[in-house]
């Protein structure tokens, strides 16, 4: 059995604009990772911090630093995996969530739970990923705290435990009160903008508070906090780690309020690497053999190089530079001589990695998303889902002599999780599927730039897709009757292309022996 160093591998889920980037920067700043670049000394220089990261990225020539960011605090290493949010919402985002042990959900205090947060949350729920909630932008006008808490509880069907409470909001914002430690987090410095001072109180009745907080805010804080303590579940670490309860922290990433408390909560409560679902049995992080799986493949930024970086989450064992690992089910062992490692203070010198760490493996397309890598090739991690595409398009080739290149390109990009590809049983019009609009633009521009294939995307007569399964007779019957709507995915699995979500419901009712799945496990 191996003794593994303490790790917290997590992702931030949020809707665009809720403050993920700002929070990431502050986490790195507070966690000391920015010292990597050796430049940022003072707090609040977020813009500098960001450009420092970009500089590292340029020096390394590939865009990998934004995929994994690492910081250390009190002997714990935090690996923050980026979930590309914004419009380029893709399966990549979803799959990254299979490589984390927990997540931080950032919501805007004025907007509450928005659509993308909700989608990402559902993915976390599929795998019971524990979630800490950070309600951001309390320095601005927002909704009532109770309204926010109740929305989280109702929409996500989770127990909520407020851990901190904002003292006023917007123009009246005075700080954050920690309901568990009775600490009051206050602004400091000449601008009184950023969190600095922490006052230890004996509780909400502490007379110190009267001298610090305005009477209106204090009366409201006392009343609200009392109601909250009586009305919401007490924090229960086990319920949180099972994905049944979310502790809720209030703060302002921009003004640095509550960021420290958030790191503290991750350190104290978020789970370290645990056993992951695999065949023939779950893999414990304490297993001696090195095992891991690829959750993301990224093409090199330089279009002249076909190199790809496969991002592997290490699940067990101690990885050492130069080690040979075998992808389960296909291929020979590969010696990993130049892994990109993210966790060490001096990145370049890192040559060991531990469970929970991410390793970037340069390769020429041999490694695919979902691959298991291990020393003995005797395990296979399960549970990396493909998602039903929400947009389907027919690919029209402008030059018919380029069919081969097109097929290669579509397969490659399906491998990377940029798009999904479906090959209909009848006809020669290949269909691609994506979960976000921007993926279509990425597809077209990469077809031209990398594969020299000019193509156009046309409306497809289908709206969504479902992977089908069931016993052989039922499948045969279904397939024969619906041949015009049948296709195979890149791995040869049967897929039903539906004209609408309504049609999915209709056929599901008519063919009770066939299972229609909106996700497919690899
Ligand atoms: P992302 O799209 O989720 O990555 O969001 P960003 O971090 O880019 O933030 C979106 C906008 O909200 C930016 O203009 C930020 O400066 C602003 N913002 C982020 N956090 C806060 C906050 O705590 N308070 C205020 N007032 N603005 C914030």
Please give a structural write-up.
This protein is an alpha+beta fold and 522 residues long. It folds into 3 domains: 4-65 and 101-269, P-loop containing nucleotide triphosphate hydrolases (Rossmann fold, 3-Layer(aba) Sandwich), CATH 3.40.50; 278-381, Rossmann fold; 385-521, 2-Layer Sandwich (Alpha-Beta Plaits). The chain is built from 13 helices and 32 strands. A hairpin with a 4-residue loop joins strand 8 and strand 9. The longest helix has 17 residues, at 215-231. The protein is globular and about 80 Å long. The two termini are 29 Å apart. Residues 34-65 and 344-349 have low confidence and may be disordered. The structure holds guanosine-5'-diphosphate. The site of guanosine-5'-diphosphate has 16 residues, from helix 1. Guanosine-5'-diphosphate binds next to helix 1. Keywords: Cytoplasm, GTP-binding, Nucleotide-binding, Protein biosynthesis. GO terms for molecular function: GTP binding; GTPase activity; guanosine tetraphosphate binding; translation release factor activity, codon nonspecific; translation release factor activity, codon specific. InterPro entries: EF-G-like_DII (IPR053905), EFG_III/V (IPR035647), G_TR_CS (IPR031157), P-loop_NTPase (IPR027417), PrfC (IPR004548), RF3_C (IPR032090), RF3_dom_3_sf (IPR038467), RF3_GTP-bd (IPR041732).
């Amino acid at each position: 059995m191996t003794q593994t160093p303490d790790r917290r591998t997590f992702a931030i889920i949020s809707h665009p604009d809720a403050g993920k980037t700002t929070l990431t920067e502050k986490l790195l700043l507070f966690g000391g990772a920015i010292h990597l670049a050796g430049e940022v000394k003072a707090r609040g220089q977020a813009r500098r911090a960001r450009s420092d990261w970009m500089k590292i990225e340029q020096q390394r020539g590939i865009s990998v630093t934004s995929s994994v960011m690492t910081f250390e605090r009190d002997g714990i290493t935090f690996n923050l995996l980026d979930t590309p949010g914004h419009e380029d919402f893709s399966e990549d985002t979803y799959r990254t969530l299979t490589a984390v042990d927990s997540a931080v959900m950032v919501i805007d205090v004025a907007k509450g739970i928005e659509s993308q947060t909700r989608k990402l949350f559902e993915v976390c729920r599929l795998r019971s990923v524990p979630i800490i909630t950070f309600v951001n932008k309390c320095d601005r006008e927002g909704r009532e705290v109770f309204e926010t808490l109740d929305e989280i509880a109702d929409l996500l069907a989770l127990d909520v435990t407020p851990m901190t409470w904002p003292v006023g909001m917007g123009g009246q914002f005075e700080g954050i009160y920690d309901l568990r430690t009775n600490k009051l987090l206050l602004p400091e410095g000449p601008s009184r903008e950023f969190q600095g001072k922490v006052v230890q109180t004996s509780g909400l009745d502490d007379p110190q508070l009267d001298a610090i907080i305005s009477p209106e805010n204090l009366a409201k804080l006392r009343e609200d906090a009392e109601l909250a303590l009586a009305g919401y579940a007490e924090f229960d670490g086990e319920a949180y780690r099972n994905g049944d309860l979310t502790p809720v922290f209030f703060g302002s990433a921009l003004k640095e309020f509550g960021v420290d408390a958030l790191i503290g909560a991750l350190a104290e409560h978020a789970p370290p690497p645990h056993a992951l679902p695999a065949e023939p049995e779950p893999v414990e992080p304490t297993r001696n053999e090195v095992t891991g799986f690829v959750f993301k493949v990224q093409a090199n930024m330089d279009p002249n190089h076909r190199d790809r970086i496969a991002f592997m989450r290490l699940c067990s064992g101690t990885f050492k530079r130069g080690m040979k690992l075998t992808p389960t089910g296909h291929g020979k062992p590969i010696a990993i001589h130049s892994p990109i490692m993210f966790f060490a203070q001096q990145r370049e010198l890192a040559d060991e990695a531990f469970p929970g760490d991410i390793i970037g493996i340069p390769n020429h397309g041999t490694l695919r998303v979902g691959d298991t890598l291990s020393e003995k090739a005797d395990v296979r991690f399960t549970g990396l889902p493909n998602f039903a595409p929400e947009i389907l398009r027919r690919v029209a080739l402008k030059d018919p002599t380029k069919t081969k290149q097109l097929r290669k390109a579509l397969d490659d990009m399906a491998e990377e999780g940029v798009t999904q590809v479906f090959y209909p049983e009848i006809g020669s019009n290949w269909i691609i599927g994506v979960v976000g609009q921007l993926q279509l633009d990425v597809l077209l521009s990469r077809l031209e730039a990398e594969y020299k294939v000019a193509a156009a995307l046309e409306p497809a007569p289908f709206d969504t897709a479902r992977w089908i399964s069931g016993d052989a007779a039922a499948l045969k019957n279904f397939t024969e009757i619906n041949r015009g709507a049948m296709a195979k995915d890149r791995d040869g699995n049967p897929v039903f292309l539906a004209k609408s979500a309504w049609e999915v419901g209709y056929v599901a009712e008519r063919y009770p022996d066939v299972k229609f799945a909106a996700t497919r496990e690899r």
